[in-house]
Write the structure tokens for this entry.
Amino acid sequence: MPITHTQSSTRAFLLLVSLSYSHARSTLAAQRQRNPLPTIALLKPGIRGPCPSASLKTHAPELVRITRANAIQLGQSAASSSPISISGLSHLFRRGNPIQSGRRKFLRRASEGAADPPIRIGHGWDIHRMEENGLPLTIGGIEVPFEKGTVAHSDGDVLYHSLTDAILGAIGMPDIGQLFPDNDPRWKGAASHVFMSEAHRLMTERGYQIGNVDITLILQKPKVKDIKPAMAENIVKLLKTHPSRVNIKARTHENVDSVGEVRALACHAVVLLEKV
């Protein structure tokens, strides 16, 4: 029976693995005789630190990783018993190799606090129920006349809440629910610009300023087209930024789910912060 291309590739692959494995063992064994390494440190997936005193026999199969594509490309060499040169692998296991030292530097930076990046991105989302006996409907610091109001612990301003969360997330802080819990009587009925101002203070202390703000309001009713400029102006003042850096969009929910049935309203906020 003639040998197909697939069978040939499979045989080449198996032969290549066998030859490479044997060559790796013999090469490393020879190097270890010339320069004994009493302790070998390996970084293995799923292990947070080095594995001391690991033997070559146990971990040698992990030294050579060959894909099927490699075998097909190198099939001719494998078929002619030409082993791939694998030399100098022992340096991967020395304590002073770049992989090990890089890992130690990474862990040290993580514990000490790495340098802040030039930009940070945060995302915030909020949703509130709306009822006829709810609080006055406040969006972006603007009280909107409407037959329904929000159900919330504070004033239920979804725009300010989502934007506050976006800023906090960008600087790696806890969310608005942790900083201003809804079971704390101090925030009962509080105006949400207080939360925004605190987020801005924390952002400034961290050494950042607003790069840009992008808001997406999602509500079936009421229409907010005419009050978007006023909402944007409030954000500009609170975050001490330029009007060109604040954008507010609004869309309906196509009569779908609680938002589409005017039982709730929601908001997404994305913020980019720049290092000062």
Notes: The first strand starts at residue 119 and ends at 131. The beta strands are 119-131, 138-139, 142-143, 149-151, 208-218, 246-251, 264-275. The radius of gyration is 31 Å.
